[in-house]
Amino acid sequence: MAELEGNAAGSFPDRSDRGEIRKAPILISLVLGAFTAILNQTLLNVAIPKLMTDFNVSADTIQWLTTGYMLTNGIVIPLTAFLIGTFTTRQLFLGAMICFGIGSVFCAGAPDFMVMMIGRVVQAAGAGIMMPLMMTVILNLYPPETRGKAMGTIGIAMFFAPAVGPTLSGWVVQSHSWRILFYIVIPVVVIDLIVASVFLTNVTERTFPKFETTSFVTSTLGLGSLLYGFSEAGNKGWGSGIVRATIVIGIVFIVLFIIRELTSTHPLLNLRVFRYTGFSIAAAVSCVVNMAMFGGALLTPMYVQNIRGYSALDSGLLLLPGAILMGIMSPVSGALMDKFGVRPLALIGLIITVITTWDLGHLTSSTPLSHIMWVYTFRMFGMGFIMMTVMTSGLNHLPRTLNSHGTAAANTVRMVAGSLGTSLLITVMTNRTNTHYNTYINHVLTTNPQISLQLSTLTNQLAQMMGQPAAIGREIATYLLYEESQLMAAVQGVDDAYLVAAAISLLALIMSLFLRNVKRPVPPSPADQPELPEGRSTRRAIVIPRRTLRHETE
User: Fold this and answer.
1) Which three-class secondary structure state does DSSP give residue 414?
2) Nearest CA to 520 among 151, 204, 143, 147?
3) Of residues 503 and 550, which shows the higher confidence score?
4) Superfamily the domain 277-431+494-519 falls into
């Protein structure tokens, strides 16, 4: 009974508690693998224009390097609970790293787009396993009261890789071949394979679950269609027939997947984890935060590069301090969560996020980059209090037997939310830009005497400067006026998208008020034990009330 109580609370004796497992080398192996996978993804984003030129493909084609990677992740992540129960930790991690390494070799030497696409899919198959596996291992190695700091260490890989990626990629693409981006990754993969083969031991239980074919098919079709629809919505708009059709198909199959998982005796992904209120609330907050974070992180480089005309390297340098600070804050916030609980940290982090995102919603065409860098850096500081702490607090509500299913479910919903948030904010930016542009043009085309006078003055000045007829001067003046209108509209479109992100962050702030910490049952003291009749054994019986077997929350 005492062991069952420990299981219900998520803390119980295992090999790690007895000191038989060296935790630090295991953690280093897993973090290095996750860092490599995330670094590779961020490295490629900046190189997309160069790849379009070298492979002679369109933007719609080249975006499949990102979309295909995301779709493969969407297929693999729900499978990780089954894979963790089937293979040892060592087998699964080494297999994932080998798979990722093979994909990197394909990409580095790709002679054409098709080989590159195959390499990306193989990479994604390995990378999709790493994060859920790593989180499951942390849950098994560390008791709930120290998981915050351990999960925060994972955050170093999650946030430091995006910090280094764009800057490093911008420099490489400007000075060398894009293939170096993959050659950089391959030695890191080899080093991690050596480290993992020496230090990584099995810390997960092999339950040999039955493979659910129906669940796999419905999950693949549902998540694949939904993620593809969200991805295309950012490019083609929500009114596109393909976008609507794929989202509807995705929703239908996800509903079928949910029904199957809740009725099956051997679910591929046990969705009963959402019956734990604490986990469900944390997952919801994490999803909303992801929508604001990933969408917002895309808006800033677009503003800096597309609107202000700075290079990818300049954009990466502007984002670098914030991402580094977020990586530093991750283990710090994890340790603070272990001490003070999740709710204070979530409130502080989200208040900072709301304020800074609101500030970024008031950019102009002449806002100093130094101001943008400081605001963005402070925004990432706030995010550092939230990202890993909220997810960890949710996973702490689950019993050990559901660790692998909890991490798979949490990563799946976060990925869908991040994709939805990105496409939503890009759509807002595009639509609002068009609206503002049409408004400006309507003002220009009106018979407003002030605008007509300014246009006439500009026409005469240009004609005199170039020594050309007034008609030529008027054409150039009109062109400049339209170009200025387009620039102003684009800035306001980014502002509107950031204001939507601020509203999403405010929603997460309200939801975070309902976050709760796990209440651990207090073992009865000797004074509370019943007296035993004389002559009976002196060992006291530990009576555990039935209610303590439930997973209680504050």
Assistant:
1) helix
2) 143
3) 503
4) MFS general substrate transporter like domains (1.20.1250.20)
Three-state secondary structure call for residue 495: helix
- 93 Cβ partners below 8 Å, 6+ apart? 29, 30, 33, 129, 130, 133, 196, 200
Is the predicted pLDDT of residue 531 greater than 60, yes or no? no
Residue closest to 169 by CA, chosen among 191, 192, 185, 187: 185
* Sign (positive or negative) of CA dihedral 9, 10, 14, 17: negative
130-176 pLDDT, tens digit each? 888 888 888 888 888 778 888 887 777 777 777 677 777 777 877 78
Q: Looking at residues 516-525, what average pLDDT do you find?
A: 58
Comparing CA positions, the residue from 517, 520, 553 lying closest to residue 393 is 517
d(CA 44, CA 452): 48
- With a CB cutoff of 8 Å and minimum separation 6, the contacts of 461 are 473
What DSSP line would sit under 88-134, residue for residue?
Answer: -HHHHHHHHHHHHHHHHHHHHT-SSHHHHHHHHHHHHHHHHHHHHHH
Predicted confidence (pLDDT) at residue 92 exceeds the cutoff of 50? yes
Enter the pTM of the model. Answer: 0.77
Q: Is 341 left (phi over 0), alpha (psi -120 to 50) or beta?
A: left
Rounded to the nearest 5°, which phi and psi values hold at 518? -75, 130
State the DSSP code for 384.
T
Nearest CA to 403 among 134, 210, 140?
A: 140
Dihedral pair phi/psi, residue 266, rounded to 5°: -130, 70
Confidence band (pLDDT; 50, 70, 90) for 53?
confident
CB atoms within 10 A of CB 334: 24
CA distances from 231 to 65, 160, 288, 363, 392 (A): 12, 25, 18, 26, 28
Cα distances (Å, whole numbers) of residue 14 to 6, 43, 139, 212:
11, 39, 12, 30
Which tokens sit at 350?
């989200």
Greatest Cα pair distance in the chain: 119
Question: Residue 547 is inside which H or E element, if any?
Answer: none
| β-bridge partners, 553 | 518
Q: Tell me if 1-209 shares its fold with 277-431+494-519.
A: yes
Q: Per-residue pLDDT for 54 more than 80?
A: yes
Residue 446's pLDDT band, with cuts at 50, 70 and 90, is: low
Q: Is the pLDDT of residue 100 over 80?
A: yes
Report the Cα–Cα distance between both ends of the chain, in Å, rounded. 23
* Structural domain 1-209, CATH architecture: Up-down Bundle (1.20)
Q: Does residue 301 sit in helix, strand or coil?
A: helix
Domain boundaries of the chain, sorted by first residue: 1-209, 212-267, 277-431+494-519, 434-493
Tell me how crowded residue 146 is: count the other CB atoms within 10 A of its CB: 14
- DSSP annotation of 539 reads S
Radius of gyration of the chain (CA): 27
Percent over 90 (pLDDT), the chain? 25
Q: Can you tell me the distance from the alpha carbon of 388 to that of 385, in angstroms, rounded to the nearest whole number?
A: 8
In this structure, what token pair is assigned to residue 336?
Answer: 């603070």
